[in-house]
């Protein structure tokens, strides 16, 4: 494929974007679930046709250990975007953390207070990943949604470049 734009669109279609975070059964996290659904919709509109919520691929993980279900469902070729809020996303991060290739494919979007100021267990775990911090006000704004889109776009461009879609940038695939 010689047209970089077509190649980038192909990468967007093929890249599986998994949105992890608070689910429907978690009390008090409706705003976060609504935000993940909004982000999924925006990514689908942008051509990321293989964008799913974590619960879409995990199904009912209560019948077996979450860590087994999660590790079976994801791979390093996926882009894993985590909206950190509450206990469930922290468990998901703890499962992913020991696997370096999965950790490199993961970006955590977390509350600013979890990664600034005093050291906390959630903050220590989150800081082992690539992360983007946000405030409570940003949670309800379009700004946070666009941060997720930017993360997906950067990943797509990086993967297209590594595959040789932009030879004039001086990078050639091995």
Regions with little confidence, pLDDT below 50 for 5+ residues:
none
Q: Please identify the top-level CATH class.
A: Alpha Beta
How far apart, in Å, are the first and last alpha carbons?
A: 17 Å
**CATH topology annotation:** Rossmann fold
Helix content: 40-55%
Order of helices and strands: HEHEHHEHHEHEHH
- What is the makeup of the main sheet? 5 strands, parallel
Strands across the major sheet, in which order? Answer: 2-1-3-4-5
Global geometry: globular
Please tag this protein with its features.
174 residues; Rossmann fold; 9 helices
Question: In terms of topology, how is this protein built?
Answer:
Layout: H1 4-14, E1 17-20, H2 30-45, E2 51-53, H3 54-58, H4 66-73, E3 79-83, H5 87-96, H6 100-104, E4 106-111, H7 121-126, E5 130-134, H8 136-139, H9 142-162
Parallel strand pairs: 1-2, 1-3, 3-4, 4-5
Structure description:
The chain has 174 residues and is an alpha/beta fold. The chain has one domain (4-165): Rossmann fold (3-Layer(aba) Sandwich), CATH 3.40.50. The protein is 49% helix and 13% strand. It contains nine helices and five strands, in the order αβαβααβααβαβαα. The protein has helices at 4-14, 30-45, 54-58, 66-73, 87-96, 100-104, 121-126, 136-139, 142-162, and strands at residues 17-20, 51-53, 79-83, 106-111, 130-134. Helix 2 links the parallel strand 1 and strand 2 (51-53). Helix 1 (4-14) packs across helix 9, helix 2 crosses helix 9 (142-162) and helix 4 (66-73) packs across helix 5. The model has no long low-confidence stretch (mean pLDDT 79).
């Amino acid at each position: 494929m010689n047209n970089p734009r077509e190649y980038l669109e192909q990468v967007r279609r093929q890249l599986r974007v998994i949105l992890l975070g608070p689910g429907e059964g978690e009390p008090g996290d409706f705003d976060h679930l609504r935000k993940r659904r909004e982000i999924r919709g925006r990514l689908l509109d942008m051509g990321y046709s293989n964008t799913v919520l974590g619960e879409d691929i995990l199904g009912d993980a209560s019948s077996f250990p979450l860590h087994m279900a999660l590790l079976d469902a994801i791979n390093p070729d996926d882009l894993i975007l985590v909206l950190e809020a509450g206990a469930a996303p922290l468990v998901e991060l703890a499962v992913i953390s020991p696997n370096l290739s999965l950790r490199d494919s993961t970006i955590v979007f977390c509350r600013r207070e979890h990664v600034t100021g005093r050291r906390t267990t959630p903050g220590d775990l989150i800081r082992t990943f690539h992360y983007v911090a946000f405030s409570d006000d940003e949670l309800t704004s379009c700004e946070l949604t666009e941060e997720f889109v930017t993360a997906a776009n950067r990943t797509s461009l990086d993967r297209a470049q590594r595959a040789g879609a932009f030879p004039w940038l001086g990078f050639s695939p091995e």
